[in-house]
Amino acid sequence: MPLFSDDPSSCVSPSPPSRFKKMDWKVRGDTNRSLPVISFFLGAALTAAFVFLGATMDVNWRISEMAVWGNGGGRDEVNAELSQLLKNASMEDGTVIVTSINQAYAAPGSLLDLFLESFQIGEGTAALLDHLLIVAVDPGALATCRSVHRHCYLLRPADGGAAAAADDLGAEKFFMTPEYLDMMWARNRFQQTILELGFNFLFTDIDIMWFRNPMRHIGITSDIAIASDFFNGDPDSLHNLPNGGFLYVRSRNTTVEFYRRWREARRRFPAGTNEQYVLARTQATLTGQVGVRMQFLDTANCGGFCQLSGDLRRVSTMHANCCTGLANKVHDLRSVLRDWRNYTAAPREVRRRGGFGWTKPGRCIH
């Protein structure tokens, strides 16, 4: 599938076919003087336009772009490596489950261990690990990934300066800090790349526990399916607030264009705005302009700490949202896993009667 480019120069049309060279063009006046002058002013105008465009771009946005596309090689080499990994991990319909980690999340006993454990103890979820691509943002996280999982990919910074700035990518990123925002927008661009390469993806934050296959809740007519911290009861309502930590997107020209406009909309918001807020403010406009169907997932099935799914007979995933701090997330998710184990250990007839719930209060869960 042909790649899309953010480089304005990529929009320049190719040279006209040679057959046009046979056409006779008549120019009135002194062509030796007028054509060079016209060319000079056209060139100056184009140069000024590109300088202005570059100057008005958000600096953090440009740095994030560099980080995503740099892999110590050209874009084609990066895409070839990524495309092969996606192919290896993809389902029959070309869907890949994707998550991302840094060294803090990959440390022993941290979120990666809990995340993988949830697949192992879930109902019919262990086989889904064959279709999981873990994206590491630092070499330490990559090493850990390769020791526990088959499909791992390293997102490298573009150059020495960016690499030096990226040395701290392995540390915990606190919500809405500049480093956190750069990481979120870089993730957004990476997701667009997966679509451009022809693969569907289901992105899941590393702090989401998988207990049943959530894809059964995604409508076959949905181009995009996304979680919501607080579900209003209508899966088609664009008044639901999106949570990009759990997001399914089909690879289509329309969804690639949706992503391109989503990222472009960032420039209309103040510096320090995250991708989720931009989506919430533009999703109604973008879906109408591009023509995609956006589905919001019921928190009874794909829930989180913000709006707990109280019925363990229905829950597919549990997200440690509305919770800040790595230690707090790990603490409460360990309780969630313990509660799930207790539920699945009970006799079937007891589980059918219900009455099982999550341990409360925790550090975040209430």
TrEMBL record:
Keywords per UniProt: Membrane, Transmembrane, Transmembrane helix
UniProt superkingdom: Eukaryota
Keyword Cell inner membrane found: no
Positions of the Nucleotide-diphospho-sugar transferase domain: 128-333
Pfam family, one: Nucleotid_trans
Transmembrane segments annotated in the record for this chain: 35-56
Entries under PANTHER family matching the protein: EXPRESSED PROTEIN-RELATED, GLYCOSYLTRANSFERASE
Name of the protein in its database record: Nucleotide-diphospho-sugar transferase domain-containing protein
